[in-house]
Amino acid sequence: MVHKHILYGVEGGVATVTLNRPDRLNAWTGTMHHEVKQAMREACADESVRVIVLTGAGRGFCAGADMDHLQQIQGGSREARGDEPFDPNAPEDFRKTYSYFPSVPKPIIAAINGPCAGLGLIIALYADMRFASDAAVFTTAFSRRGLVAEHGISWLLPRLVGIANAADLMFSARRVSALEAKELGLVNRVFPQATFAQEVAAYADMLAREVSPRSMREMKRELWNAQFQTLAQAITAADADMPASFESEDFKEGIAHYIEKRAPSFTGR
């Protein structure tokens, strides 16, 4: 499939989705939105794909909504016209315009290689993990545009950095370095720009080769669903999932490769 605003490739069990408008710091457009969503569908349909990496071309991750397209994508309901939910059976929370990443049944790593602002930051927050280059810079941006806490950032950000830090980042829209982002809990890891791509690739490769795709799929679902559950509900849900895991091929392989002291060969089943 030919894309206008992204690149898509698969290698060694890792699908890489690259926002590809480097001359505009990969500013987000309606076309990019639909192409990213289609790429996520392709990655999910491809049984060889175990992990998805989302990154940006050139020196930026995503500078936010393209100012030339701001009216088009400002309102989620307007952009969502004709935009089917990624998974119509997913909880309602994961069927909004940008909130579908949790319903993608494979881990998504946001590889933040440079500036990450506004809507670009929200996209990164919906990923399961965030790795940053030490050249990355973050800003919520919205208060400096006269806007609000868009697209669920008021729910996402406090869960990562706490309410007070979220208020600071949203009210001020100040620029945050990668190292401060790590201290706040906004990103998982920070790598030097010179080795950033290799470090992200090594981690993604480890997930693709060494752990059960079935485990990751089930854990991701449990992890995101638990954000709307009590502890008792989360325990009950996990208990209900346990019998099928004991019957799975990946459980049998998990025991076998450990006993036989060899590399695993998981199937995801």
In short:
The protein is α/β, with parallel strands linked by helices. It contains 11 helices and 9 strands.
Primary descriptors:
9 strands, single chain, 3-stranded mixed sheet, 269 residues, 2-enoyl-CoA Hydratase, Chain A, domain 1, 11 helices, globular, alpha/beta, 6-stranded mixed sheet, 14% strand, 2 domains
Explain what the structure shows.
It contains 11 helices and 9 strands. Strand 2, helix 1 and strand 3 form a beta-alpha-beta unit. 37% of the residues are buried. The protein folds into 2 domains: 203 residues, 2-enoyl-CoA Hydratase, Chain A, domain 1, CATH 3.90.226; 49 residues. By secondary structure, it is of the alpha/beta class. The strands form 2 sheets. Strands 1-2-3-4-6-9 form a 6-stranded mixed beta sheet, with helices on both faces. The chain has a 3-stranded mixed beta sheet with strand order 5-7-8. The two termini are 28 Å apart.
Based on CA atoms alone, the radius of gyration comes out at: 19 Å
Task: Count up the helices.
Answer: 11
**Total domain count:** 2
Q: Biggest sheet, strands in spatial order?
A: 1-2-3-4-6-9
